[in-house]
Each structure stands twice: as C-alpha cells, then as structure tokens.
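Bug #77: duplicate submission created two jobs. Keeping one. Sequence:
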Amino acid sequence: MTKANSVSGSTASGGPRPQGARAAAERWIRTELRAAPPKARSLIVTVWGDSIAPHGGAVWLSGLIRLMAPFGINERLVRTSVYRLVQEGWLAARQDGRRSLYRLTSQGARRFEHAYRRIYAAPSDGWDGEWEIVVAPSAALRAADRAALRKELWWEGFGAVAPGLLVRPARSTSTGVGEIIASLGLARDVWMLRARDLDGEPGRLLSGIAGECWDLDAVSREYRAFIRRFERALHALGQGRAVDPEQCFVVRTLLIHAFRRATLRDPQLPRELLPSAWPGRAAYALCRDFYRLTQARAERHLAATLEGEHGRLPSAAEYFYARFGGLR
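Kept job's structure:
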C-alpha cells in the first residue's frame, strides 16, 4: 500500500485521515473496555446523569438498551440495572403496552444535580479561612447513625478530626448539609458550627491536619491515572477530527465515568490546604477540553438513538450548555 492510499497516516495538512482517526478511536475504546469493563449499573448512572437528565430525564427502555450496547452491556444487564435503580428510588417506571418508559424521580433528580454539580464546576479558588464543623456527640447518637452521617458527609468533603467531629473548609453555601442531616433524622441531635483557627495561639491548627483528615495521596493517584488514560485517548482521537458520533458518545461517557470516580472522592480543598503539584486542576482542564471536543457529535448520537416520552428526544436543557464554563 502506498503512502497516498494509507488509511492510518496523516493528511497533507498534518491532521489524521478520517479512517485512521476512527480506527484509532475504535482501538482505544476496545482496549479500555477490555482492560477495565465498567459495571452496568454504575455506567447507567453516569449515562443518565450526563446524557439523559439534560434531555428531560425520561427514555424508553428499548432506546437505553441500544445506547448501552457499544459498551458491551447486554439487554439483560440493562434491565437488571434499571430495576435496581427503581428499587433504590432513582427511577420510576411506566408501562405503555409492551413498552417501558423510565424517568428520573424527584429524589433521583436531586441526587444527580448534587453530584454532577461537583463534576462540571471549576475548582474554587476562594477561601476565607473559616471551617464548617459538624458535632455528632456519641451520647446522643447510635453508632449506626454516626456511621451513616460520617458516610454521607464524606461525600460532601468532610473529614473526621475525631470521633463525632467532622470538618471541612467553609464554602459560600452549605451545599445541602442541613438537608442531609435532616434526611437522616438527626436534626435535633447534631450541631453545625463555623469557626476559625486562632493564629498565634498555642496548639495545633486545623489547617495543619489536612493529610490526616483526608487521604489526599489516594485522590492524587486517581487524578494522575485519569490524566494518563485520557491523554492517550485524545491522541487516539486525533484531536477529535473525523470521529463518528457513536465513538464520541462512548468516549465522552467513559471520560465522565472516570472523572466522576475521581472527583467525588476529592474533598475539594482550597489551594492553601493542598500539597504542591496537586493534579486535580490539570485533570479538570483535560476533562473540560475533551468534553467540549466530543459533546456536539455525542449529542447527535443521542438524538439518533433515543426517543423521549412523546417521540423525538427533547433538546438539552440550558444548564447543559453551562457545563465546564460553557459549551458551544
């Protein structure tokens, strides 16, 4: 085969040939799915939050089965996963003859909004030195209640200074912390405070114990692995030129699935409390740029594959285009 006829080389302008870009993207997707096949339920949660929720949050099961097929997730696994999500309160089902429509419940919508707000928003630079403190005294709570509270607040970036004493750098809003405490039935037994370090006074400062309250080394490793993985994907896609819509959807979904895993474990501490060379911002920038690169064609694939409750899939809501600081 001559160089002029090769499908895997570069064009005269330096960009990859269309067939070469598609083949490289297909190889990367195959390799990724073989090396680390995602669990069906977890991936469907990612797809619903990233792709379906902005389009009204309701789709027919048949379309969801088609959408998940390129990931190697078969009809039986899709059916089992959505059944579990219904049981857990994320989704509600409606029968229309032999067809099944699944939609987000109000509880599921709140969960997605809360989790995905952390994924798409840029890391915050501002911190005024205040701390949010949650006090859960052992005398007032059962061990099971304290464990449930600690688990829920861990997802909100709280670390444990001592048993029953949870802290995080204060944010501009409490981001639903009071709602979490109330939902656990603990509003009468748990205290919420704001405080500052007393500079110049003897004793340890809260700002000096970040490494003890949060496993920042583990989060850093996760971010660095994400960067290595998707820098390779960016190269395989040839900067996104000439890759087909289905491939863009698959790569965008794997991107957000991996980034969700890393960022939801990140306490999102301010710069002052992070170790030097923290990779979180580089991971966010890579995710943002990659998402912008693939989103238009990924959206075309969704429109061609799914139907909403009344036929054509609704256009994406306005908030979709505000992700990552703005999508074209």
